[in-house]
Records
---
Amino acid sequence: MPRTLAIRDNGRVNHSDQDTTDTLDEQPSRGNRLYPRVTSFRSRRGSLTDPQQDAWDRRWPELGRDVGDDLLDADTWFGRSAPLVLEIGSGTGTAAVAMAQAEPHINLIAIEVYRPGIAQTLQRIERTSETDAPVSNLRILRGDAVEVLEHMVAPESLTGVRVFFPDPWPKARHHKRRLLQPKTFALIASRLKLGGVLHVATDHAEYAEWILEAGNAEPQLTDVTWESPMSHERPVTKFEDKAHQVGSHIAEMVWGKIGA
C-alpha cells in the first residue's frame, strides 16, 4: 500500500484557497449527455479584479482553453514534446507554478473551474518572468477534470496526475460528489503510461481513508518501487501552518501504474 510521505500543504483548493465572492450554482455536469453526472466541485461565478482581468486578457488566449470534446494535442500546444502531467484542482496556482518552475522538462496542465483562481495563476506565471526561472511549461484547462480525462486525454499518454486537497464533501449524503471514487481511479489509471504516477494529498482524515481504500483497490495501480518520473515535492504555504495549528495531519499517497 502507498506510504504516507512527508507533510506538505498548498491549501484546500476548493475551500480556503478560493478568495472570491462567487455565488453557488450547483448544476450537474453534462456527463454523457443522457445521464448527467454529479460533479465534485461547486460551480461559482466570480468577478475579477482589474489586475486579474488584465492578466486574463493578456495570457488566457495563449495559455488557457475551455474543456471540450476534442482530443488534446499537447505537443502542439506547448510547442515541444515532453512528459505530460495533469494537476486536478489547481486553485490559485500556488503548487502548479512552483512545480512547473522546478520541473522545466515537464509539460504541466493545470485544471481548474474557478475563473478568479485561474486569473491568479496567470498572474503568478507572469511574475516568474522577472525571475531566473520564467515559467513557459504550464497551460490551463477550465472545466471538469473528469471530462478532460474522458474526452481530451488519450489512453496511456500521461506521465503523472496530481490531486492536491480535493473537496472532501464531509457529509455522508454528499460523498457521491467526491472526485476520487473507484471509477475515477480506474479512469486516471487508464490514462497513465506504464510507470506513470498518481500523487494525492488531503488534510481530511476520513477522506484520506476513503482515498486509500479506493486507490489500493484499483488493479492497475501499485506502490512505486521504481524511480518516479515526476517530483513529489510541493511548495509549503501558510495553509500548512493553519493545518498544524488545528492538529490536521496531511496525508500524501502515491501510486504507480503497473508495468514499469
Note: The beta strands are 23-24, 44-45, 64-66, 84-88, 107-112, 138-142, 158-164, 192-202, 221-222, 251-257.
---
Amino acid sequence: MRKTSVIACAVLAVAGMLVATAPADAAGTPGTTNGPCGYMATPDDPPARPVSLPPDPTPTPNKGIVKVLVATNQGPMLLSLDRAKAPCTVQSFLHLAKSRFYDFTTCHRLTLYPTLKVLQCGDPSGTGEGGPGYSYKDELPTGLPNWPTDPTGVSKVYARGTVAMANAGPDTNGSQFFLVFADSRLRPNYTIFGWVDRLGLATLDRVAAGGITPTPDDPTGVDGAPARKTDILVARSLGSW
C-alpha cells in the first residue's frame, strides 16, 4: 500500500501537464472521426465520464511499444502497448489515459473459472455497463496457439500477461479491458493490444489470491467483484505519444 501511494503520487506529479483536450481532428461526419479508425459516438450508450472522441490521424501510428503505468491500491502495473498489433486500440487507450478517464476507477470483475482467469477494468461506473461513449472496430489476433484440449481449434490460448479489450460483440470496443493472470481459453474475438510486466503480474496474483466474495447471484465465488477491492488510482503513458 505504501509503495503504491508513492508511485501514484509520482505519476500524478509527472502527469500534471497531461490535461485532456478535445482533439482538433476528432470531428468527421457527425459523431464519427474522419481517420482510418473511425471512432463512432454511441448516443444510446453515453460516456460514464465525460471524454471526447480520440484523435484519429492518417495514417494511424502502427509502430513501437508504448509504456503505460497503471498505479492501483493493490500495487503497480506497467503495461506495454503494441501499436503494430492494434493501432486503433492503442490510440484509444492512450487518449483515455491522457483524459484521466481511468483515474480513480474500480476493476469491477474477477473471474476464477478453471479456464478463464482475468481481472476486468475500465468502467468508471464500476458496474460493467459503462464506457467512453464511443465504439470502434476490432483488431483481432491471429496466430494464437490452440487450446490444448479443444480438438476443433476454435478456442485459443490468451496467455498469462495478456492485455485485451472486453466487448459486447463485434466492433463494440470501448474502454473496458481485461488482464489475464493465468492462461485462459477464449475464442479469438477479443483484441489483444499489450502485456503486463512482472510487477503487474504480482499485483494481479495478489488480487486473484483474495478471491471473490460470494453473492446470491454467484454463490460459488468464481465470477464477480474481487474481494480485494482493486482501484486504479492513475493511468498514464510514460513519454510522449
Note: The longest helix spans residues 2-14.
---
Amino acid sequence: MAFIADTLPSWRDDPLRPSATAETVLTAQLCALLNSASRKSRGWDYLQFRMEEPDEIVRGRAIDLVAAPSGQLIWIDGRRYSQYEPLLPVECKRLPTPPGRERDEREYLHSRHGSRGGVQRFKAGDHGAAHTHAAIIAYLQSDDIPAWHARVAQWVIDLSAETTNWTCDDGLALNTHDPERGMARLSSNHARDRGLADIALDHIWIRV
C-alpha cells in the first residue's frame, strides 16, 4: 500500500494524463502509471498491476485492480504467491457516487440496489475471500477529506441501525491526512459472511 500511496499524487498531477472523471478510465490510467513506476523503482520492481482481475474464489466477480508478483515467487505468512495470484485486491470508488437510478450515494460502503458497495463486497466475501487484507482507493471529486470522513462515519451509523450485518465497528479510522497533497490514509476492520475470517481494509483517498 505504501507504494500505491506514494505513487498516487504523481499519477494525479501528471501533465501527460488525459483529463477524466469516469472510475474505469481513472483506474486504467492509474494501473498504467503504477506499472511504469514499479519497473523503475528499486525494491518495488517485483510488482505488477492488473485491472478487472477475476476473483480467486468467486470467479464470476472481477476486482478493479490487483497487485501481483512480476515473474517471481513471493512468500507471505506461509502462503506462496506467483504472478497468477494477487497479493492485494483493490476496489476503486468515486466520491460522490455518480447519479443514476440504480446508484446509491453510500456506494463506497453499501448499495441498497445490489452488491455494488465497495466495503460491502469484501464483507460479503464476493471480493477477496482468499485474503485477510485488501484496499479501497477513493477518487474524491468534490468536497474535502474531513467532510467525506464525517459523511462516511454517519453512513456507518445509519447502516448499523438499518441492517443486521453492519455495526459501528465497521467505521473508518483516519490515520493520516495531508491537506497539501489532498490525500488521506484510513483503515477499517470488518467481520465477514460465509464463515470467513475478518478482513482489514486500507483506504487511500485522493482529491482529483
Note: The chain has a mean pLDDT of 94.
---
Amino acid sequence: MTRPDATPAAAPRSTVAEPIRVLVADDEPMIRAGVRAVLATDPGIEVVAEAADGHEAVELVRAHRPQVAVLDVRMPRAGGIDAAAEIRRTLPATGVVMLTTFGEDASILRALSAGAAGFLIKSGEPEELLAGVRAVAEGAAYLSPKVAARVVAHLASTGAGERADRREAARERVAGLTPREREVLSYLGGGLSNGQIARRLHLVEGTVKAYVSSVLARLGVDNRAAAAVVAHEAGLLPPPPPEQR
C-alpha cells in the first residue's frame, strides 16, 4: 500500500519523436496530391499545409512554421525560387526543398543561391523525396543523384578557362579555412548532417554546428548547399567512412 505522504512516481516521458512538419507548394493539384501521398508513406512526416503559388507558400509558412517547405520552381504570382529567398530571409528555421522538371540547370543554381538546401527532380524516385525532406529537416543539404549529375555537367560544360577560374577561386576561398574547417567543409560537400559529421570527427554536435557557421561565414555563402558547391569546385572530397578505408 502506498503511504499517504509518498510522492507519486513521475509519468514516463514519451520517446516518440514529433513528426517533421512539411508545407507543399505546387500550382498543379495533381502534383500536390502526389507529393502529399508520397510523404504520407512515412509516419515521421506530416503535411501541415498546401499552397498553389509562391506568395501563398510564404504566407502559410509564416502561419504554420513547418520545418521543411517543398516548393515547385515554376508557380504563378511568385515562383518557388522567389518564395525560397523570402522564406530563408524571414523564416530561416524552415528549410527549403525545390522540385523541378529535368534539365533546368540554371534554376538549380539560382535556387541554391536563393538558399534552398535540397533539390529534386519530379520524375525521381519517391524515396528521394523522403530522403530529401529528412535530410533538410536535420540541417543537411540534399541533391538527388540526377540533380547532382546535372550540376556537375553544367559546371563541366563551361569553357576550360572559366572552369579553371572557378576552380582556382574556390581553392583560394578554401585556403582561408583552418584544417578543421576544411575537414568539416569536405563533409558538407558529401551532404552529411551535423550529427553525422560529429560522429565521423568524434565531436559533440554543438561544436560541429559552430564550425559549420564559421565555414559559411568565411566562404561568404548563405547555406550548406552553396558551401557544398564550393567544396566540389575546389576538389575537396570527404574521406570515406571507416568501414570503407
Note: Residues 140 and 192 are 6 Å apart (CA to CA).
